[in-house]
Specification:
heterodimer; A: 115 residues; mainly alpha; 83% helix; elongated; B: Spore Coat Polysaccharide Biosynthesis Protein SpsA, Chain A; seven-stranded mixed beta sheet; 10 helices; 16% strand
């Protein structure tokens, strides 16, 4: 057995436990926890049974198992970046609303400056 | 007979000045507008220099004409202008104007810009900069932005990137501005068009100095605006 076949399943178990703890503490949504758990289960399965990736690859018309894994990781990363982009965009809009509201409610007078 | 802007018209007008790091340029702008008899809403956009102190110094001279607001952090000309518009609506305003605070625009043009609103000829006005006065790089960027505004927002105007614009209170209530940066210029025009608000173009003087040229729509800003326009399509 190769070294990664030991390391990746251990990392996967730790990651799933970590996500479960975060969910229990209310820091993750249920959907995020499930999504990341599925991802780490797939990582663990592929590292324990590397040849399995070939079967999945053939199912979607890709010849090599490694190519399938690379494409899968690429899709996951793309989704993650897109999700982060939308989160940052929403946070920016929220920030703008707050900064505007604070400014409008606090007209600066000459008395403020003297204080 | 040609209509002359009265004191009542000026009292009902609020000029919004978004200001980011304009400590060395804003004072003559404020004083020129105040001397003309117009009210101002000045929004300090989280400047890192002493712009706010300079604004307050001018407020001491014209306490009734100058209203000052300050964003806690720098959020861009779009957010600062939106804040100014919202603040202007709190006052007894009938006409709201926005101008650049770097001295690029002349206070002498204020009467001409609000005139179509006062006489009921239009409900929104954009101040159009003469192309011959524009530096070449700005001219190209502006031509590209006019073209993109036509493509993305389906509005044909002579100067889509002007920061000198005026609108009536009723029209401002109808439009919705969300742009944070320089996209505000094109968005303002799109909103006027989408809401069927009658608008006019008024020629304005533009004073270009090396400092004013460093700001505004250059080619890199034009690319940013293009990306925002594409984003706004979704």
């Amino acid at each position: 057995m190769l070294l990664y076949s030991f390391i990746f399943p251990i990392i996967s178990i730790l990651a799933i436990v970590w996500f479960a703890f975060r969910y229990l503490r209310g820091k993750n949504s249920f959907f995020t926890t499930i999504l990341w758990s599925i991802f780490w289960i797939i990582v663990a399965i592929f590292s324990l049974f590397p040849n399995l990736s070939n079967s999945f690859a053939r199912m979607v018309g890709i010849t090599r198992g490694l190519d399938f894994i690379i494409i899968l990781v690429f899709i996951i990363l793309f989704y993650t970046v897109l999700r982060l982009y939308f989160i940052v965009d929403k946070l920016q809009n929220d920030m703008n609303t707050i900064v505007k509201q604070v400014a409008i409610q606090n007209e600066i007078t000459l008395d403020d400056e003297e204080e | 007979m040609e209509y002359k802007i009265t004191k009542e018209d000026k009292d009902a007008t609020y000029v919004v000045l978004p200001a980011y790091n304009e400590a060395t340029r804003i004072q003559p702008v404020i004083e020129a507008i105040a001397e003309k008899g117009y009210n101002m809403v000045i929004v300090n956009d989280g400047s890192s220099d002493n712009t706010l102190d300079v604004i307050l110094e001018s407020k001491r001279k014209y306490p009734d004409k100058v209203h000052v607001y300050s964003l806690l952090i720098n959020r861009g000309v779009g957010v600062a202008t939106q804040t100014g518009f919202d603040a202007a609506l709190k006052f007894n305003s009938k006409y709201i104007v926005s101008m650049d605070s770097d001295g690029q625009h002349s206070a002498d043009d204020l009467d001409a810009v609000i005139k179509p609103l006062v006489i009921g000829e239009a409900q929104a006005v954009i101040g159009v900069r003469p192309l011959k006065d524009m530096p070449r790089s700005r001219n190209y960027a502006n031509a590209i932005m006019n073209f993109l505004t036509r493509i993305f927002y389906r509005v044909n105007v002579s100067d889509s990137q002007t920061g000198f614009r005026a609108i009536t209170r009723e029209a401002l209530d109808k439009i919705s501005i969300n742009a944070t940066g320089y996209l505000i210029s094109s968005e303002f025009i799109r909103e006027i068009n989408d809401n069927n608000i009658p608008f006019a173009e008024v020629p304005i003087e533009t004073i270009y100095t090396p400092e004013t040229q460093a700001k505004g729509t250059n080619v890199s800003v034009a690319i940013k605006i293009l990306l925002q326009m594409i984003k706004h399509q979704f």
